[in-house]
Request: fold
Amino acid sequence: MSEEILSNLYRIAVPLPGSPLKATNSYVIKGIERSLIVDTGWNREDCLTALVSGLKECGVDYRQADYFITHMHADHSGLVSALAGEEAKVYFGWADAQITRSTASEHWEDQTDFAQKHGFPGDELEKALGSHPGRRYSSRASLNLSVTKDGDTISIGDYVFKCIETPGHTVGHMCLYEPSKKIFICGDHILVDITPNITLSSEDRNPLKEYLMSLDKVYDLDVELVLPGHRSIFRDYKKRIRELKQHHQTRLNEVISILKKGKQNVFQITSQMTWDINYRSWDLFPPSQKWFAFGEAMAHLKYLEEEGKVGREAQERGVVFYIEVSDA
Ligand SMILES: [Zn+2]
Reply:
């Protein structure tokens, strides 16, 4: 179903069956010759049907459209290979484009080694990665990407969007800001009903630090309407940014208080943190949700490690353990 939000700007909610995210918001800006479609949905039949029928309602032909993908995750990028015509531009942030171009099998092997090093049990890891939507529903064909950078502009109809790099949720995450309309299409950078997942998947990054910097970077934009990648459209932009920063501060404090009990690996720490999900205990979490939580805990530990507040102890059988570093 499509919904007109502003003149020639529509939202289509593409359902994500079985995901707590419920749906991906695909935004459609209708132009005269070509239209722009921002984000798509998983590469599976029910998503395709929903998006194509929504586009029909808006009077947009997906073969006469260009695509802007806020970030590489399969719930945003998955369907684009099934939709984009030969002449279509597929805009993609440069850093995510680089990852998308690297071979997928290498990516998943690295993830496995990394998770085992931080205590994720092997049998659960297999289940978590086997059912991972990023693995099952990503784009099949290799795409000819139009790489975007901070400050690039994209014009469509009456809209002139400025591309803003917002690393954090992914390393190459991009948002679109339309200053004259005061709208901000922000992918998974800012969500209102849920908090965006900030996850660490390789040692050389500090995604939580990047994310908090990206929140500060966009705080002063003059925004009246926020169009996020999932759930509700909302208005109180600055308030939500402040809440997200506070949320991460609370989590950082929680990790420190867990480490006061003594050295632990990341999987053990994750199991004691507070997660906003409807399962009574950690043991009942499906492996895929344990995986997301684990990545998020990892991101918080990396942040604290770089701040000098936690440290690593000698590894036990290849698994890394963390300790609190006291101020004294
Ligand atoms: Zn995402």
Summary: Residues 237-259 form the longest helix (23 residues). Residues 71, 73, 169, 188 surround zinc ion (CB under 6 Å).
